Amino acid sequence: MRAPLCLLLLVAHAVYMLALNRRKKQVGTGLGGNCTGCVICSEENGCSTCQQRLFLFIHREGIRQYGKCVHDCPLGFFGIRGQEVNRCKKCGATCESCFSQDFCIRCKRRFYLYKGKCLPSCPPGTLTHQNTRECQEECELGPWGSWSPCTHNGKTCGSAWGLETRVREAGRAGQEETATCQLLSESRKCPLQRPCPGGECRAACG
């Protein structure tokens, strides 16, 4: 009689220790058993439904998963709002952080950010920045130049309004050559002297 009782006590103790160890592991991750912000929560799996405005973050460990309600999704995840539940979804495999599944903000090592994508190398016509792991266009914009004189059909007077223009040069990064970079310009409306005064302006008005 004493032997079966001892065996039963050993089994009960083993089950208790297993449950205690599992509970410690869940608390250690900060996920299982943490019901802050939850609407529905269990000790085994944590949150399954969150309060409004919070995101449900599912942490997977082997075949088990634990839910936690968070204000902001952790690094490597992005928040997506739904009609019934807001969830944290994992970024793409090459993204360190992202705005959405298709738009990366920062890339993992050995990848470079270019227009929201993480690429193994920067495309032709761009420069590789190792510190930020970004691809930058080779042509860098310089400052805007001064506005040109206000003219209308090549004349500086004789009309109510004319146009003045300024240009902005773009050079290749680290190089003086600008032939392959586009020259930018912009124009704006400007007032002219409608009656031509005497002298030089009259000659310009023809």
Q: What is the compact description of this entry?
A:
This protein is an alpha+beta fold and 206 residues long.
What key phrases describe this protein's structure?
single chain; 206 residues; alpha+beta; 3-stranded antiparallel β-sheet; two-stranded antiparallel sheet; 2 helices; elongated
Number of helices: 2
- Computed structural class: alpha+beta
Averaged pLDDT, please? Answer: 78
Helicity level: 10-25%
Provide the low-confidence segments as ranges: 23-32, 175-180
Strand order of the largest sheet: 13-14-15
N-to-C CA distance: 126 Å
Describe the structure.
- By secondary structure, this protein is α+β, with helices and mostly antiparallel strands.
- Helix content is 17%, strand content 40%.
- It is built from two helices and 15 strands.
- The strands form seven sheets. Strands 13-14-15 form a three-stranded antiparallel beta sheet, with no helix packed on it. Strands 1-2 form a two-stranded antiparallel sheet. A two-stranded antiparallel ribbon has the order 3-4.
- Strand 3 and strand 4 form a beta hairpin.
- It is elongated and about 125 Å long.
- The termini are far apart.
- About 8% of the residues have low confidence.
